Automatic annotation (TrEMBL):
InterPro entries: G_ENGB_dom (IPR030393), GTP-bd (IPR006073), GTP-bd_ribosome_bio_YsxC (IPR019987), P-loop_NTPase (IPR027417). The lineage of its organism: Bacteria, Pseudomonadati, Pseudomonadota, Alphaproteobacteria, Rhodospirillales. Necessary for normal cell division and for the maintenance of normal septation. Residues 49-224 form the EngB-type G domain. Pfam families: MMR_HSR1. This is Probable GTP-binding protein EngB. Belongs to the TRAFAC class TrmE-Era-EngA-EngB-Septin-like GTPase superfamily. EngB GTPase family. Its cofactor is Mg(2+).
């Protein structure tokens, strides 16, 4: 397997994994995956157990679609065209080896300030106190790059010292020329965030781009932390 922290050699390239690593990822994500817990507040979190991977991102960035694509299921994580639909931390057990945690979407202005404040406090508490949290994936729409609210979550992850990987989504909608601009642009922003790995991963839930590689990446974390 290549180093899971290494990034693309050139803008727009997908990082290569060995065939064995891709197969290990396929096998893990082919295991039974089911919803186990929903928590709207810190006192509702499940007991710590499996290593956890948290999925964070702006509303409608494609978090639920990515979880569904990774697991090969269409309805595991509920998708919605209504931003702000996910209003709790949703936990999924993957084969008894890894927990996938779908966090509430952020950056949607029509959600009430009181609800945003509540989500933020719950999120801070989860990130600071969850000993089984191995990595936070921050999903960023590849068509738009990092927005102010993405910067806010990256800073929060810096403050809570949670290892962070940025994943660009919807890359099937981003042309070659735009990719060559967008990827270095995002990676330049990441240099200011010590908790973030310096290279991005590229994905598309629709075309399947980057899905085998992301599975391999997460499988390595499940195996080795």
């Amino acid at each position: 397997m290549t180093d899971p922290q290494a990034g693309p050699a050139q803008p727009g390239e997908t990082k290569a994994y060995s065939a064995a690593a891709i197969e290990a990822g396929r096998l893990l994500f082919a295991q039974e995956c089911h919803f186990t817990w929903g928590a709207a507040a810190l006192d509702g979190l499940p007991p710590a157990g499996l290593p956890e991977i948290a999925f964070a991102g702006r509303s409608n960035v494609g978090k639920s679609s990515l979880v569904n694509a990774l697991t090969g299921r269409k309805t595991l994580a509920r998708t919605s065209h209504t931003p702000g639909r996910t209003q709790q931390l949703n936990f999924f057990d993957l084969g008894g080896r890894l927990a996938l945690v779908d966090l509430p979407g952020y950056g949607y202005a029509k959600v009430s300030k009181s609800l945003v404040a509540s989500w933020t406090e719950t999120l801070k508490g989860y990130l600071r106190g969850r000993v089984t949290l191995r990595r936070a994936l921050v999903l960023v729409d590849g068509r738009h790059g990092i927005k102010d609210s993405d910067g806010d979550i990256l800073k929060l992850l810096d403050d809570t010292a949670v290892a962070t990987q940025v994943v660009l989504t919807k890359m099937d909608k981003v042309g070659k020329g735009e990719r060559e601009r967008r990827i270095p642009e995002v990676e330049a922003v990441l240099k200011a965030h010590p908790a973030a790995f310096p290279h991005v991963l590229l994905t598309s839930s629709d075309s399947g781009e980057g899905i085998p590689e992301l599975r391999a990446f997460l499988t390595d974390i499940a195996q080795h932390g």
